[in-house]
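Q: A reviewer asked whether we had any structural model of the full assembly, not just the individual parts. We don't, so I'm hoping you can provide one. Inputs are below.
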Amino acid sequence: MPKPKPPVQPGERITLPITGQSHTGDGVGKYKGFTVFVPLAIAGEQVAARVSRVKKTYAHARLEEVIQVSPHRVDPLCPVFAQCGGCQLQHIAYPAQLESKRRQVVDAFARIGGLEEVTILPVLGMEEPWSYRNKAQVPVGGGKGKVEAGFYAAGSHQIIPFDRCLIQQPENDRTIQQVKEWIRELDIPPYDEKKHRGCLRHVMVRTGIHTQEVMVVLVTNGPELPHRKQLVAGLRERVPGLTSLIQNIQPHRTNVVLGKESRVLWGEPVIHDRIGHVRFAISPHSFFQVNPVQTEVLYEQVRRMAALTGEEIVIDAYCGIGTIGLYLAKEAARVLGVESIPQAVEDARHNAELNGIAHASFEAGSAEEVMPRWAREGIRPDVIIVDPPRKGCAPELLDAAVRMSPDRLVYVSCNPATLARDAAYLKERGYTNRQVQPVDMFPHTSHVECVTVFRREWGENREV
Ligand code: SAH
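A: Here is a predicted structure for the entire assembly that you could use as a starting point for your response.
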């Protein structure tokens, strides 16, 4: 039967009640039974909105008036909140943001997983939910003599300049400002993405919060870097804590920020930071959690759920630079990590050495290929930890995990929808979870991180 025609037209003004928050943070409501997404509207509000786009099963509308205001509505602290695409929830009071994130997980488990019986615990938030990011990455643009660096406006490549980003550690903002001023003075040509010409594409800054070591990465369109000597000398003078100054070359027409090749312009190839008691070396390409305070909160939850006694064999799948496995290593007999980016695996090995951890090893490869092989080779871990990207775990990996028959499988997830899907898959194979602990790694954005532990329902091994 053909679907009825959408009851709204682009340009139409409608009023509707907002009943929920989408996974991107938009308000969601129904108008004549038809789903409408309204950015900046809050669940519980009655709003008037102008329809902007209509699809077969839903529409988007721009908020024009809040008729009934949510008690959780607050004035966003950041002056460019409405234009910048970085944060989505600054207009919602922090406790309500946390509850809205919890609801998302509740919905995913009920709707996608069909797992209403799983308890979703209150989100562990930050006491001070600002200035948390240890990494800033800004595009460079504008014309000759008018270099600009800032954020892309939501859904576009228009650069919005800024001086202070409130979720960023102030040191990073200061460093970005210093780099910006100096490249302006030297008139380093910014990259023009339409013409694919010019030099400087992005500036990336990372700070180790425990070490105060600073890395600056200048991403250029090719190997040339005009005024290189002066640039280096000026940044050494101006950027406090500068430890590593890197040129990264990204010659392709792409949205991917970093290219393959990095050159040290001055200083070290890496900076260091700590998570808890473990030291890590971080290179430009390394995935390193951006909220160091909450990373410890998250990893402590992983530690609690893994409940190690020093006897266990632990697999850390999707291990990045080895962070979780190394964090747990002193309570394990052996740690095996797998990760698809070879550079990250090298970092993981180096990090094991840096911490004098000899019983952890790391293998490069895709987890869905390596884990089945480990299962065939007879590796029998007591605990498996997975921390996949947004798309979740491949079925091959979950099948291999079940075949290995661990006592516990700890799942760290950045996407409740794929976590719920995988939870349903694991349940069919005899591994169930009772509770999910969300942790707010990214206050004021719509991202939700979760950790949960699956346990075998039977005592016996089971082949699938
Ligand atoms: N556990 C780490 C990293 C988690 S991010 C931490 O807490 O820091 C997810 C990681 O999975 C990334 O490092 C990414 O490179 C890796 N990855 C993505 N797909 C993969 C796959 N199919 N097999 C193995 N690793 C993969």
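A: Points you may want to mention in the reply: Confidence is low (pLDDT under 50) at residues 460-464. The first helix runs from residue 94 to 111.
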